[in-house]
Structures are given as C-alpha cells and as structure tokens.
Fold this protein.
Amino acid sequence: MRPTGKLHLGNYMGALANWVRLQDQYDCYFFIADWHALTSDYADPSQITPNTRDVLLDYLAAGLDPARSVLFLQSKVLQHAELNLLLGMITPLGWLERVPTYKEQQENLTGKDLSNYGFLGYPLLMASDILIYQPQFVPVGHDQTAHVELTREVARRFNQFYKLNGRDVLPEPQVLLTPSPKLPGTDGRKMSKSYGNTIQITDPETVVRQKLKTMVTDPARVRRTDKGDPDKCPVGDLHKVFSTPETLAKVYDGCRSAGIGCIECKSWAADGLVQVLNPIQERRAGFKESELVEILEDGSNRARQRAEQTMQEVRTAMQMTLTSPAGRE
Ligand code: ADP
C-alpha cells in the first residue's frame, strides 16, 4: 500500500482482509510503499511519514501480525532501489508505456503532472519490490494482474541474459488471485483515496452513518414510491459485501417492491459496516507510538537480510563482483 492517506474500506476488503488470512498459510512480506507514494506526491512529501504511521496502524488493526509476517518500509531496504536500477537496464520502454494503469492514471489524476520518469518506472519498481524476495506468489486482485505479468516478463528477460551456475536467479512469481470485490465509494465510482469518496477504516460510527446518508443510489429510484434494483445501486453493492444473507434478502424484496426507502436501506448497510469496523478500531487504539517504530525497524531489518541474499545472487549473475558484498549495508 502507498502511504498516501489512511486506508479505506476498499483497501480493507480488496486487499488487507485477504492478507490477514494468508498469514496462516504462507511466509508473507507486507510493506508500506513510501517511494511509490513519491511518484505522485513528489511536490509535497510532508504527509508521507505521518501517513506511513497510519497505514502501519491500519495493517496492525486489521490483524497483520509482525510476529508471523515481515512488515517493513520500502525506503529502509535500499536493495529494492539497486535491483530497480539493474532491471531498468534490460526493460524496454514500450513495456512500461503499455501498462494499462499508466495512461489511465495520467488521465484520471488531472491535478498532478505525472509526466515524470518515476511515474513511468513505477511498475518496474513494483517488479523489483516483488522479485527481490524471490517469491512463489503475489497476492493481488484482478486490477493488479497486469503489473504481475510485467514482473514475470522482466524476470524472464533477466534469466535469459544472466544465470548463476547455470540456474535462474529470479523465479517468475505467480499471481495468487484473492477475491477483490470492487467496492464503490459514496459517489458510486470505485472507492479511492484519489476521488475523495472513501469510508476510512478509522471513521467513527457517526461519520460512517453520515457518509452513507449522502451516498448515491439507483438513479432510476427518484421517489420513495419508485421501485429500485439493488443490482444497479452502489448501496446494494455494499450490502452484498457487508450484510447478512437475511438482510440482503430484505433489501432485494423491499427495494424491488418499493416496500422500503433508501434511508432505511442505507441504515442497514451502515449496521453491517460498523460491525466490521468496530473490532478493527478497538485493536487500533491499543498500539503505542514507540511500538510502531520498533515494528517497522525490526521488519525492515528482516526484509533487508532477505533482499541482500537475492542481491548477492543478482550481482554475481551480472558479474558485478568487484565490489565486496561484505562492505554493503
Ligand atoms: P487508492 O485508489 O485508494 O489509492 P490503491 O490503488 O493504493 O488505492 O490500492 C491499494 C490496494 O487496495 C490495491 O490492492 C487495490 O486493489 C485495493 N483497492 C483499492 N480500492 C479498492 C476498491 N474500491 N475496492 C476493492 N479493492 C480496492
């Protein structure tokens, strides 16, 4: 996750909740991508550090466990930058220009000039973030599969050029597709920090209820007496993710027959959201500032050791062996 603000329910349902479950089955690395935040927030980096603290708190509150997984800060593991530089030598520009999010984001984020080198190189930095841990899997939703595909292509090209004692150094990771329902925001578009339409993990109940009150609904249902369709309504989408089957059945019945109004329907949706958020918010309140720094430092040290192991193989395979690896951080 990029530390560009507090995490929202879309981040939680689309990514974080899955990660929490993966900890039972895999050795996991989860990081906060502060360099990635700079690709769009380079002109004013003042919020990156406070946001890093918030994202870490959100991770911990959701249930990521520093005793079981490695939780770290990208900029504390310089090996990511070294691998990024080396992979940059073998990556054709066209591969980066054709990543679908490149044009999409440039068009969507009209307030920021994204014609910089860092933004174009973003997917390659992401590939480096992944490959440096020589992982088997990358847990992502559908929207991220193009990035993993690029990662695999870069690894393949690296392995064609360089070998270590005849074997590949960077295994091609596989996508571990996690269920990632696209959660709508209060304006009906995809919930996103950049659109200002989010419900945050930290929003208190009153704020959640207030935000839901203003949320857009099925446009065909203008008056209370009009019949609606939960499948065409962003609030209906929230119900599908957060409500019990019983509530969902009442929503379908009530909306399609105009038996309930949108206000009542929204208050049921808010009930479901609050139920998910309450335990997370309670856990979040239990962490102390000093603990946060310690957790990130410890995790970053562990990540660095693992990353350095890969880099020694990479440097040897690329015959960059004149510098002594022992002298490196
Ligand atoms: P944002 O658009 O708010 O900046 P990011 O692009 O940083 O969010 O997304 C971080 C992670 O959260 C990604 O894995 C993404 O798939 C997931 N995610 C973000 N928004 C949503 C959403 N509305 N619904 C489902 N998953 C989402």
